[in-house]
Design brief:
The complex is a heterodimer of chains A (534) and B (365).
Chain A: H1 2-14, H2 24-32, H3 35-47, H4 54-61, E1 65-68, E2 71-76, E3 79-81, E4 96-98, H5 103-116, H6 123-134, H7 142-151, H8 155-170, H9 175-187, H10 191-201, H11 214-263, H12 271-292, H13 301-324, H14 331-353, E5 369-373, E6 376-379, H15 380-402, H16 404-414, H17 416-421, H18 426-448, H19 460-473, H20 478-499, H21 501-518
Antiparallel strand pairs in A: 1-2, 1-4, 2-3, 5-6
Helix pairs in contact in A: 2-3, 3-5, 4-5, 6-8, 7-8, 8-9, 8-10, 9-11, 10-11, 11-15, 11-18, 11-19, 11-20, 12-13, 12-14, 12-18, 13-18, 15-16, 15-18, 16-18, 19-20, 20-21
Chain B: H1 2-12, H2 15-37, H3 49-74, H4 82-99, H5 113-117, H6 133-157, H7 162-181, E1 193-194, E2 198-199, E3 202-203, H8 207-233, H9 235-252, H10 257-283, E4 285-286, H11 293-306, H12 312-331, H13 333-350, H14 354-363
Helix pairs in contact in B: 2-8, 3-8, 3-10, 3-11, 3-12, 4-6, 4-10, 6-10, 8-9, 8-10, 9-10, 11-12, 11-14, 12-13, 12-14
The chains are: A mainly alpha (534), B mainly alpha (365).
Chain lengths: 534, 365
């Protein structure tokens, strides 16, 4: 069986790829022809790289192709369809008979389908087909793989194909082909390809499968070295991106705090819970879209982000009016009272929505990722969050630096009495600024819901980190907050591979404590006499 | 001589207050044990083992509140990391208790069960000598004391104070919690230490041992109270209060607050550690959850409820809050967090001086 196929498939390499799709004659031959006629059609489809033949061939393999009188039909779930157009066929009184195939044809069909899937229109299918071929391909498929490679545009599929090609050529008896294979594998660095090279090199002199040609051995060693180097680069890039991603999350969590704690000097321990409320608001909007506007589900975030902002802002407003207002100038009491508020919020959410995590689905455009280089895929949702945090940052900066509200906030924070005597309604400014900071926390929660679990304790995990960011960045400094957030994210992620996640975190905390020794006012210390105030 | 001792006590509290403290102490260490051990279980006067254990636990908490009052109420430094010192003391005692299980563990090894489970072959170096009780006692004082000393040295030297100090202490206990959660740290990871069998050869399950530990806790609390009181009425206490009220002015007067703060801070941590060491054999478990930031903040609320800067107040506050907690978490588990949250808000807003402050204001007008 295999020689027959390999003969035909090898013949394909020579045959010029004709862009000929399977036609009615072909279908009829499959349905009514004898074994060799059927084989011919299958081979012709493979020769033509005709992905359009896949449904018919699969139907034949799965026993769904049938004959009704002089006509070939697809029998699918009790309905008869035309094999080519898939239009329903009316069969009055015809006797329908399933087309049976022998084992030889079955195997040919399976291999043909696997090869043809390399030419499927959807890149995902092609990738799957290539991955499937990676396991246990033999030299027969080499011409097809090479042809698929020639017209492949998707880098991830091309990588997989090259890996197959390299693996196959590596076992070739021809020394030049082996060298070419090494070159191919070297250019698609992955752990799998490295393994192939290492295997070829053999474990020792007495390894039977080991490469003996000194020039090839040399090339193998160089190839392994090259792959190692590019894998290291990819890994480094992965860490740096991971740090950026973590930094952007910390930034979102800390930006609101930069206003309430940094500018206003209110230490709000319920800040994490405002994140949590933003995340739950996102979840509510998402559920609403799912049940009422499933068609618009992919853009639910456009509604969820403002909703999260408003929900958290409103809670913040209430918090300011009921608790924080009475305690201005008494930071330690504020700390305790807002901690109490955070306990209340957690328990309210727990009683309302349950103690279990709720699931927030990503809109479809956020799933998947972009392949930057071999071995490094950056998920879209992380990119979206980085972009979102930058957007929020710009908005906050504009608000503080360019709007009247920002001006008033800065004026009140610099000197409350002077501002009041100049006619600024300080209680209103306090209230609005606090609500603004809380709303930004809500936006952070909206972003967090896209990458992590949403549960009543969501905020607790962020409270220590966000305060660290603000303390490190320096109170009252947006720039400091940004740099501290990104820096903390980077340091955390860069330490992780060496020390493990927990030790990295501990190291970061220790570093912060030591850093504050040198610069008690943070990275960007305000000049002047404000230092005594806190 | 005797009158000398009495006089020195009278310097601490007026005679009537001393009498009251003495009566409460006598009730706790004489009446309660008698009612537990001598009165049969069916009797209405019988105090159950559960109540004794709960009371012992609360006495330990009260000691923590006392330590917290010393540093927060008198020195004005709000620590959000006192749970760490409590837990460190507890772990130090826990190590000894783990070792004294001997070969009676699940795996019948001389190593603690969790080490067998992790496939460790021998004790890590920092466990050396942990089977000696005296060393355990030393460690109970040294572990929290040294951590506090080193941390306080750096923090106070660079004049970190106010909410910054609070936040950093919170980060400190958080970091330690993460550290202790790791299995590789060698303190039992997630599960911590448990399944203790005996202390100094006495079985921990026996009512007598429990009562003894309870009496010990009450005595330790009384000693800590008198010690703290002795400190705060002394000249040192006045400096501490001055640090709380006007640190800059104190500095201008020629005092360097650094040493005073460091002393109060470290002493407070050590008292916490001792409380933790008494707590662990009574509740039978210690795990990193004790170091969670939430636990440490709760300590602050005991003090706030009782009344800062009054020593007796925080003791009462700790007892009150924890009685309410142990009752409510069983009877109305959902309500407890609401109540705790409300207590935080209401006490800080409306009763900033706590119970003791309110009572003093009621007595004065």
């Amino acid at each position: 069986m295999r020689p027959a196929l390999s003969v035909t498939l090898l013949a394909l390499a020579a045959a010029s790829p004709a862009a000929m799709a399977i036609d009615q004659t072909g279908v009829d031959k499959l349905a009514f022809g004898d074994a060799s006629a059927r084989m011919e059609v299958v081979q012709a489809a493979v020769t033509a790289s005709d992905a359009g033949a896949i449904p018919v061939l699969r139907a034949l393999l799965e026993g769904k192709l049938a004959t009704a009188g002089r006509k070939a039909v697809l029998a699918e779930a009790g309905v008869f369809l035309d094999p080519l157009t898939r239009a329903p066929v009316d069969l009055p009184g015809e006797e329908v008979e399933k087309v049976s195939i022998n084992n030889r044809l079955r195997r040919t069909l399976e291999r043909a389908l696997a090869a043809l899937a390399l030419f499927a229109p959807a890149s995902g299918e092609r990738l799957q087909a290539a991955r499937a071929l990676q396991e246990g391909a033999d030299e027969d498929v080499l011409p097809i793989v090479e042809r698929a490679l020639a017209q492949e545009k998707e880098p991830s599929v091309a990588d997989a194909l090259r890996s197959i090609q390299g693996a196959l050529l590596l076992g070739s008896a021809d020394r030049d082909k082996r060298l070419a294979a090494i070159d191919v594998l070297r250019r698609a660095p992955s752990t799998r390809n490295k393994r192939l090279l290492v295997q070829r090199l053999g474990r020792g002199p007495d390894d039977a499968g080991a490469e003996t040609d000194p020039a090839v051995r040399d090339a193998l060693l160089r190839g392994i070295h090259d792959i190692d180097a590019s894998l290291r680069v990819a890994e480094m890039a992965g860490w740096i991106f991971g740090g950026l991603s973590l930094g952007s999350i910390l930034l979102l969590a800390a930006l609101g705090l930069a206003i309430t704690f940094g500018l206003m000097g209110v230490i709000n321990m319920a800040h994490g819970e405002l994140l949590m409320i933003g995340a739950y608001a996102t979840w509510l909007v998402q559920s609403l879209f799912r049940s009422h506007f499933p068609g618009a589900f992919s853009c639910y975030l456009a509604v969820a982000a403002p909703a999260a902002f408003l929900a958290a802002g409103l809670v913040g407003l209430l918090l300011e009016v009921t608790v924080v207002r009475a305690l201005y100038g008494r930071p330690l009491e504020t700390l305790l009272a807002t901690w109490g508020a955070s306990l209340l919020l957690i328990q309210v959410v727990r009683s309302t929505f349950g103690a279990q995590n709720v699931e927030v689905a990503n809109p479809s455009w956020m799933s998947g990722g972009v392949t930057v280089m071999s071995g490094l895929v950056i998920p879209y949702n992380r990119i979206a969050i980085i972009a979102f945090s930058l957007l929020v940052l710009v908005i906050v900066w504009l608000l503080i630096a360019r709007t009247r509200l920002g001006l008033l906030v800065r004026a009140v924070m610099q000197n409350r009495r002077t501002a009041a005597s100049l006619g600024v309604a300080t209680p209103w400014v306090d209230m609005l600024a606090f609500a603004l900071g809380s709303g930004i926390a809500g936006l952070g929660g909206c972003a967090l819901s896209q990458i992590g679990n949403v549960g009543p304790e969501l905020g607790q995990a962020f409270i220590v980190d966000s305060f660290m960011v603000v303390v490190l960045g320096g109170v009252g400094q947006l720039a400091g907050t940004v740099i501290a957030a990104i820096g903390l994210g980077q340091v955390n992620k860069l330490l992780e591979p060496f020390a493990g996640a927990v030790l990295a975190k501990i190291a970061v905390l220790v570093v912060i404590i030591l850093f504050i020794q040198r610069r008690p006012q943070g990275l960007f210390a305000p000049r002047g006499r404000a230092a005594e105030d806190v | 001589m005797k009158s000398g001792v009495l006089a020195s006590f009278e310097r601490l509290y007026p005679r009537r207050a001393l009498l009251g403290i003495g009566i409460v102490y006598a009730f706790l260490v004489v009446v309660v044990p008698v009612l537990n051990l001598a009165v049969p279980a069916g009797s209405a006067l019988h105090v159950s083992d559960y109540t004794v254990a709960l009371a012992g636990k609360i006495l330990c908490y009260a000691m923590v509140a006392l330590a917290m009052d010393l540093i927060w109420g008198y020195t004005g430094i709000l620590s959000l990391g006192h749970g760490l010192f409590f837990a460190l003391g507890g772990y130090a005692m826990g190590m000894y208790l783990m070792r004294s299980i001997g070969t009676e563990g699940v795996y019948g090894s001389t190593l603690p069960d969790f080490m067998v489970f992790l496939d460790w072959k021998e004790l890590p170096w920092y466990w050396r000598g942990s089977d000696r009780f005296l060393q355990a006692l030393l460690l109970v004082v040294l572990a929290p004391g040294l951590v506090a000393l080193v941390f306080g040295f750096f923090a106070f030297r660079s004049r970190i104070r106010g909410v910054y100090f609070s936040i950093i202490t919170q980060a400190l206990t958080f970091a330690f919690m993460l550290l202790f959660f790791r299995n590789a740290t060698g303190f039992g990871g997630n599960n911590g230490f448990t399944d203790f069998k005996r202390i100094l050869g006495f079985p921990l399950a026996s009512p007598r041992t429990k009562v003894a530990l309870y009496v010990l806790s009450a005595t330790a609390l009384l000693s800590a109270l008198l010690l703290c009181r002795h400190l705060v009425v002394s000249k040192l206490g006045k400096v501490l209060t001055a640090i709380r009220d006007e640190e800059s002015r104190l500095r201008f007067c020629g005092y360097d607050p650094f040493g005073y703060k460091l002393f109060a801070w470290t002493l407070s941590a050590v008292i916490c550690g001792i409380a933790g060491a008494l707590y662990v054999p009574q509740v039978g478990i210690i795990n990193p959850g004790e170091m969670s930031p939430a636990n440490s903040i709760e300590i602050a609320i005991w003090v706030a409820v009782g009344g800062r800067g009054s020593l007796i107040g925080p003791v009462l506050g700790a007892a009150l809050v924890n009685c309410a907690k142990s009752w409510l978490t069983v009877a109305f588990p959902d309500l407890w967090l609401y109540l705790l949250g409300l207590v935080f808000i209401l006490v800080t807003r409306f009763v900033p001086r706590g119970i003791a402050g309110a009572m003093a204001a009621g007595a004065e007008p």
